[in-house]
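Input sequence (73 aa), recorded before submission:
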Amino acid sequence: MKFLDNIPLSMAVIASLTLGLAPFVPQPHVVEKLGMLFAGDLTQMIDIGDLLMHGAPWLVLFAKLLIPGSNKE
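Predicted structure, token format:
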């Protein structure tokens, strides 16, 4: 995947730790939204958008780590 090759691994890590976990208090949004998803309470469009926004950096990071050849620096 060409677009993953263009994203530095360090940038994926930084994005995951900042945007992926923001806001940090009282708990990260991604943790809250995943809890809502597993409980079946993720029904509002704002919550679904939040999950997508805060989960995207994690998906990119996992893809870079799991797809061979995509994390060459």
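Checked by second reader. Residues 2-66 form one domain.
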